[in-house]
């Protein structure tokens, strides 16, 4: 599995549709200060489901949409598509190539697609959860972040390891199931009360 291409449209400084083709192995992005190198990395985190504006180096989520320049008007939406080569079947989906798209609008609306089919963020997270590029995003280490990882609390470090090992997905599912069980128990109690009242 490797990242094949990244298309940015209206994302941060990338107003026009821009596609970067990535080959297997190491890719270096070179450019002057402020030319948008980190924005490329932000785009990868964002399309994979990043929910925190801070992690994307912005104040609010809307900041990912092209805000305009002296010569170009702001845009109303940002869109990023990441295409992953899945010929080794590392992702649990029967396609040798998987495209994930995320789109957001100024009114806060957002959408995700997997191979052009609308889906939920949860579907994207589940697809990626065993791949090592899941929701905790520990695979993207930003400038100055190394210190934060080294100084993280034991339980935070445990979460990184659990995700890398594919355990986090099951923990999340267990938490969801327990919440459902709690709700069911409350319904049962209510039902028992009602039955007692009717007797
Ligand atoms: P450095 O080498 O200094 O780290 P860089 O190449 O990583 O720089 P980025 O941080 O990726 O640069 O890009 C910063 C540029 O992106 C700035 O010029 C900033 O104005 C622009 N930018 C960020 N968000 C937006 C946005 N929403 N709309 C337009 N431009 C934006």
TrEMBL record:
Homodimer. Belongs to the SMC family. Contains large globular domains required for ATP hydrolysis at each terminus and a third globular domain forming a flexible hinge near the middle of the molecule. These domains are separated by coiled-coil structures. It comes from Pseudonocardia thermophila. The chain holds residues 1 to 199 of 1191 of the full protein. It is found in: Cytoplasm. ATP binds at residues 32-39. It comes from the Bacteria. Residues 167-199 form a coiled coil. Signal peptide: none annotated. Required for chromosome condensation and partitioning. This is Chromosome partition protein Smc.
